[in-house]
Amino acid sequence: QLQLVESGGGLVQPGGSLRLSCAASGSPFSSYSMSWYRQAPGKEREFVARISSTTNISNYADSMKGRVTISRDNAKNTVYLRMNSLKPEDTAVYYCYAREVKSGWVYWGQGTQVSVSS
After folding, report:
1. Cα dihedral value 76, 56, 80, 103, nearest 10
2. Given this model, what pLDDT does residue 65 score?
3. Are β-strands 92-100 and 106-108 bridged in parallel, bridged antiparallel, or unpaired?
4. 112-116 and 10-12 strand pairing
5. If 97 and its partner were Cys, which of 2, 35, 42, 48 is the partner (CB 3.0–4.6 Å)?
């Protein structure tokens, strides 16, 4: 069983930056591809970014491409999401998501709130 704990959310002004972290425990981290999703009030949860388990291949939602970077440190069991040029429409709860490569089992974190406002 994998546990995921996000941190790094908060209130930021438009144009600002944040780095979210997701710390994993309970299972070999390198066995999982990792992703970030977000859910704004009244909207469906949507994909933000994904990084592969060991080759660090990443892909991004078109709406976020160029403004976010996903990375991982397998030695620290942590995945990061760096977000730049934040806009009010980026306001959402951001969730960490893990998918075990071999089994397909998936896990979600509890989410961290990001609010972009002046």
Report:
1. -80
2. 87
3. antiparallel
4. parallel
5. 35
